[in-house]
Amino acid sequence: MMRLPPFRFLAPGTLAEAVSMLAEAGPAARLVAGGTDLYPNMKRLQVAPAVIIGLHNVTELTSIRPAGAGGLVIGAGLTLARLEKHALLRQTYPSLAGAIATISTPLLRNMGTLGGNLCLDTRCHYLNQSLFWRQGIGSCLKAEGDICQVAPGSARCWAITSADLPPLLIAVGADVRLVGPKGERTIPLAALYRNDGIDYLAKAPDEILTEVILPPPNGTRSTYLKLRRRGTFDFPALGVAAALDINGAGVCESARIVLGAVTSCPLVMEEAETLVGERLTPELIQTVAKAMMRQAKPLHLADYNHYYRKQMVSLYVKRVLEQLTDPNLNQ
User: Side by side, which strands form the sheet with 267-268?
Assistant: First the structure.
């Protein structure tokens, strides 16, 4: 049985207290909300923080409210289960509620939070194993070793982003609010991520992600599809999110496609720009899907081999575009 290493647990009652505790504890501390990612990583001794700061009592992080002309502001501490069933979210962004339903299992969605999913650690087959297993293959650059087992000649870690919600939220243009001892700032969600398996978040270590800000949908169609071996529980072997604005004449006015589980950060596909100003015919969809398959370079560190996952990029991009061009879609 794998057990948690020893640590000191702090339970602030307000956001200000949480910020203060995190600043005082320094790099030795980790934040936890649901703990569905951190605690398993600790049991595998991937990380061993001396201090854990629990956010479960910080009610400031658990609200959802309208904003602007139809947008939403969602607290990062809301559980995925509560958010999935929230009437305001289902009315405004049903595609997000649908994406949440693909995450893990109902039991874990009862614990996991929106902020936890957005800050989910990167993963790979060589990393997410017991310490005994990692030592047997010579360990791992992200844990206690000095070699990336995926690319031994590389100086960086190639562990991949494994969260389901960032691709869709980036596609629809979400921002996030970060709060730290120096104040607060709002940045595009896409700017939160770095293409580095170890240093994968661009936020400062003493900042807390507090809110997700969604723009008014204004008729934007969005969706998310996920490749995984089992119909539930599994992390994505590939995630494809898309958001399109299609006018009354059937012409695409804007297009954003984002891939997950390919690189260490959500991958924004520049090829989506070729859809703008065009009618999304089956021939154009097929052409764009193949172009994105060539652009994506998934490595062999998730379920299925890299060649199969690369082929699935084309298929899943084709599927999301066909879904979003369906005139009966209500998203």
Answer: 221-227, 238-246, 252-260, 267-268
Domain CATH for 282: 3.30.390.50
pTM given for the model: 0.97
Q: Does 125 reside within a domain?
A: no
133 in a structural domain: no
Q: Specify which of 137-141, 273-277, 304-308 reaches the highest per-range mean pLDDT.
A: 273-277
What CATH number has the domain bearing residue 13?
Answer: 3.30.43.10
d(CA 331, CA 329): 6
Q: Per residue in 196-230, pLDDT tens?
A: 999 999 999 999 999 999 999 999 999 999 999 99
For residue 267, the model assigns a pLDDT of: 97
Q: Calculate mean pLDDT across residues 249-253.
A: 96
Q: Which helix (H) or strand (E) holds 202?
A: none
Average pLDDT over residues 285-303: 91
Span 173-192, pLDDT tens digits:
999 999 999 999 999 999 99
- Structural domain that includes position 315: 221-324
DSSP-based three-state secondary structure for 128? coil
Q: Is residue 23 a contact partner of residue 110, using CB atoms and an 8 Å limit?
A: no
Backbone angles phi, psi at 65, to 5 degrees: -145, 155
Mean pLDDT of the chain: 95
Spatial separation of the C-alpha atoms in residues 257 and 171, rounded to whole Å: 6
Domain count within the chain: 2
Return d(Cα 254, Cα 257) in angstroms, integer.
10
Q: Are 113 and 80 in contact (CB under 8 A)?
A: yes
Burial 52-80 (b: 16+ CB within 10 A, else e): bbbbbebebbbebeeeeeebbbbbbbbbb
The angle at the Cα of 287, spanning 285 to 289, to the nearest 5 degrees, equals 65
Domain boundary among 36, 61, 86: 61
In a domain? residue 196: no
Among 61, 90, 112, identify where a domain stops.
61
In a domain, 75, yes or no: no
